[in-house]
Amino acid sequence: MTVSIPLVALLGAVVFIAWRYLGLRLWQAVTCLLFGFFLAATAVAPDIRRAVSAVLSWLTSS
């Protein structure tokens, strides 16, 4: 999946904007970060990766 690094940068930018302008608290951002980190270590991670790849390929093909 070659789009993983830009997707991470995009999601990081969204979190930063939410933190800066929408009132996201630091503990909420850290909770989201830890949730994603631990979710990536579960058995459902390949399914999530395939779903994200499918959505991205659908969006870029149209």
Number of helices: 3
- C-alpha end-to-end distance: 19 Å
What form results from the Cα inertia axes?
A: flat
Integer-rounded radius of gyration = 14 Å
Overview of the molecule:
The protein is an all-alpha fold. Helix content is 81%, strand content 0%. It has 3 helices and no strands. The protein has helices at 4-21, 26-40, 45-61.
Kindly summarize this structure in a few lines:
The chain is mainly α. The protein is built from 3 helices and no strands. The two termini are 19 Å apart.
Task: Please describe the topology of this protein.
Blueprint: H1 4-21, H2 26-40, H3 45-61
Keywords summarizing the entry:
3 helices; mainly alpha; membrane; transmembrane; 62 residues
